Amino acid sequence: QVQLVETGGGLVQAGGSLRLSCVTSGNIFSPNTMGWYRQAPGKQRELVATITTAGYTNYADSVKGRFTISRDNAENTVYLQMDSLKPDDTAVYYCRVQTAWIYWGQGTQVTVSS
User: CA 109 to CA 20: how far, in whole Å?
Assistant: First the structure.
């Protein structure tokens, strides 16, 4: 059974940084795409960033230049370094892995105060 567990969320002031981690367990086949999505109150879940097994990345325009996604293929772990955080980044952040199936984590809260 595949499980995804996110850690690293919390409360930070605007301009600060956080690093999210998503540790996976179970059989996750390669190649795959790992990514981060977020959902703010009253809004739809949206893509933040994705990274393929080969290392190709994709970012939402709103986070380009501030967030960096990376992964450890040996550990099937994905990270999100978030710098220059803004109050608009406040949301629950979800880890997602896509192979022939799609798996989601339970989410971690990120709150950015002004």
Answer: 10
pLDDT in tens, 31-68: 899 999 999 999 999 999 999 999 999 999 999 999 99
CB contact at 8 A, 9 and 36: no
| Residue 4 DSSP SS3 | strand
Tokens 């959902």 -> residue? 39
Give the position of tokens 């990345």. Answer: 57
Evaluate if residue 89 carries a pLDDT over 90.
yes
Contact 102, 34 (CB under 8 A): no
Determine the Cα–Cα distance for residues 111 and 99; give it in Å rounded to an integer: 30
Tokens of 18: 């956080």
* Residue entry with tokens 């971690």: 108
